[in-house]
């Protein structure tokens, strides 16, 4: 039971890394970017190519994936996304879904349709047995990275000048511009960071989740569930939601494999019946 709990926490933390970028763009920028999984897939493929073709260390691949995908997100935001900020949500959904299918076609063309694999460093492979508790080394690494990332993002959004400017730009862009805030630059930087986090999550999730061109579609619903259940007020809500959903998903698939795949959806429905706006909801906004 303790091993299942640990693996569930690790899986939830991986979901959080993958989804926290969507938390930023959807929750704080009020932009529905269903192509978030495409950025995660890009981070995974960057890691696969660097490790398998060029022998780059896994540890170096993580920051490279973050920076490369963040740069790609910045370019797409300046060229495409920024024109849709004021559009209806339906337009945003249709546009981002179109990008998903374009990314799938591109991945098929350049990388093929086969499952991609990477070889983790020796120190991250295997498990420790501690009084009957099986602790996967890589899963422990994911948990530690996620905790550090969550604390950093929470401090960035609540304790820094940039975080204050972002909240002001979202709540009332006209007033924020009147106060001298460069709303366009704030949104561009926020979107780049959110995209980079998706790339980091994709790089870290390749070994556990697998990687193929259908990655954005397979995990799109998981990203949305984490954000929906957690709410959009801060990183804390998705953090708790990812923990809850990760443990529920792993335990459900272990104890009741016949219906295990549906447990996560049952948890989502139960939470939203009690908290329609998620565990933590944010007042106001555009």
From TrEMBL:
The keyword Amino-acid biosynthesis does not apply. The lineage of its organism: Bacteria, Pseudomonadati, Pseudomonadota, Alphaproteobacteria, Hyphomicrobiales. CDD domains: TM_PBP1_LivH_like. Its main location: membrane. This is Branched-chain amino acid ABC transporter permease. InterPro entries: ABC_transp_permease (IPR001851), BCAA_transport_permease (IPR052157). Pfam families: BPD_transp_2. It is found in: Cell membrane. Belongs to the binding-protein-dependent transport system permease family. LivHM subfamily.
